[in-house]
Design brief:
Structural class: alpha/beta
Distance between the termini: 14 Å
Oligomer: single chain
Helix content: 25-40%
Radius of gyration: 14 Å
Order of helices and strands: EHHEHEHEHEH
Number of strands: 5
Length: 143
Amino acid sequence: MPLVYVLNGPNLNLLGTREPEIYGHDTLDDIAGQLEDRGRELGLEIDMRQSNHEGHLVDWLHEAQAQGARAVILNAGAFTHTSIAIHDAIKSVRTPVIEVHLSNPHTREEFRHISYVGRAARGTIAGFGAMSYLLALEAAARF
């Protein structure tokens, strides 16, 4: 089955308990389960990962291309707004990257309005809570 990497950055391991009024009550495991269920329906295999370390995300983007992944769904967390390294990694691979956010960064603090990830990604889905990931998976299925 075609493979879709789902990469998650810093603090996303705390979903469900971290500021649920912003990020919702779904845990990363809940989201993984939803993606795996929908992935099966779409004929896609999901490889879901999380790291608080920027270099892991860069390495996984390279790995996604080496493994021939159909797409990468990336929630880089706070690295979205700071990481030139992740921006450059996205630009250096042919695998399409879809940026996702649970909240809408444009309705939040000013520093969240800049997305280095979004400047390199194929597209962005934000503001729909856990459904943002499912919408990104629907897009990935059509690549």
